[in-house]
Known about the structure:
The complex is a heterodimer.
Chain A: H1 6-32, H2 40-46, H3 54-60, H4 63-71, E1 78-79
Helix pairs in contact in A: 1-4
Chain B: H1 2-5, H2 39-52, E1 59-64, H3 71-82, E2 87-93, E3 96-97, E4 100-101, E5 122-126, H4 130-145, E6 151-156, H5 175-182, H6 186-196, H7 202-225
Parallel strand pairs in B: 1-2, 2-6, 5-6
Antiparallel strand pairs in B: 3-4
Amino acid sequence: MPEMDAAKLKEIYTTMVRIRFFEERAITEYRKGLPGFIHPPSARRLFRPGCVPSSAKMTISSPLTAVMVISSPRERDWIG
Amino acid sequence: MMAELFAKETGYCRGKGGSMHIADVERNILGATGIVGDGIPIAAGVGLGCKMQNLDRVVVAFFGDGATNSGAFHEGVGLAAIWSLPVLFVCQNNQFQQSTPMRDYTRLTDLADRAKAYGIPGITVDGNDAIAVAEVARESIEKCRKGEGPILVVGNTYRTVGHHMGDPGTSYRSKEEVEEWKKRDPIDRLRRQLLEKKLATEAEIEEIHNAVLRELDEAVKFAQESPEPKVEEALEDIYA
């Protein structure tokens, strides 16, 4: 296996950071109260300190996903 | 994606998919489903379609460790195996099926062993090591492309936060265990590797972070200023 070059590793790093920061920003926006996503019964639980809204996590998955996607060299592959 | 979270017309799913069912078919991202494990047989189906049409494509399905206990996992992986489909099954093992630790739902200590039941390769990788994951991914995708699929890859990692909005993630594990795993953060790890190998400088890393923050500001602004979905379109894009 040839060692990955710097450009590829920085691309992977950038995507991982994009996912992490997106998740953090999405949580911030959730806590402000996004229209259509917060219904009163769950609102109090949603804002409990330290909790991460699962929906934000579900959407963007994890840095592991990012690495896998980036490692697929062809855009025509399907990601599910 | 941010616009979709804001339930706006400009979101990937025109504001109707929300965060749980986001998809972008134009980019070949078939999307998530709200049902655990249900993407697995869908991936097998798409893989079958690719094979029947002789398309040079690989399907990648992501799911958690809890999904490997579902019937959908066994049916989907089983069919993909018997038909030698070009599908890469990627299990992100965060060690908890919601709040149930792995030791309480399976006797296996390595979830890649599930592949043995279907006669396909099962590969275990340190899911917090980005370089290792990338290498396994590249090798596995190429094998699938050459007709050696399907393959199951299990990335072992750890969920350091709660499973959902009402779960602080503190009642079913120790604080010490969580803190220990936080030290293995995959982003911090790759950052250190880049710096140690002199593949990036601190300034470059900082600029990457700043550029992403600027991009997110733009995404939020775009979402805030986007129009709401039209009421008269509420029943469009509904298939069941």
